[in-house]
Write a structure and sequence with these properties.
Blueprint (H helix, E strand, L loop, with lengths): L1 E5 L1 H6 L9 H7 L3 E5 L1 H14 L2 H13 L3 E3 L16 H9 L4 E3 L18 E2 L1 H10 L1
Parallel strand pairs: 1-2, 1-4, 2-3, 4-5
Helix pairs in contact: 3-4
Length: about 140
């Protein structure tokens, strides 16, 4: 099973049913991957989704994550703090590294720092590439 941390920008893009990224929701519901979240990530999801859509939509999505069999609640065992250009993004990379996830899914260029870091190794993949990978699995 593919283990992934999903950045907020990818979650937000996947919500509208007419979005080309809605496939993320479909693949999630069909159990194609395990979605790793922490309390800090859930708080950001809530904040950004409420700003972008509505409180009702944000609560619905958080509820879906809370009850899904393929969501793993975890907390980073160590704070690597390797994303200096946007320290707020470290919650995603720290969780992905600590949980030994296969991917951090993000369209955020701040994670490009991982292209040049030998340790700890973290594969960062954009949402479109992740969807292609899921389609092929």
């Amino acid at each position: 099973m593919i283990k992934a941390v999903i950045d907020t920008n990818c979650l937000r893009a996947s919500i509208p049913p007419k979005s080309p990224y809605y496939q993320l929701y479909i693949d999630f519901k069909s159990g194609k991957f395990e979605w790793y979240v922490s309390n800090e990530i859930l708080m950001e999801y809530d904040e950004i989704l409420t700003e972008t859509y509505s409180q009702k939509t944000a609560q619905f999505i958080l509820h879906q994550l809370a009850v899904a069999h393929n969501v793993v609640f975890s907390e980073p065992a160590f704070k690597w703090n390797l994303v200096a250009s946007d320290p707020d993004d470290n919650k995603f990379s720290d969780l992905a590294i600590s949980s030994n996830c296969d991917y951090l899914v993000s369209n955020d260029r701040d994670f490009d720092v991982f292209k040049n870091i030998l340790f700890p190794k973290l594969l960062v993949i954009d949402l479109q590439s992740f969807l292609r990978l899921l389609a092929a699995s």
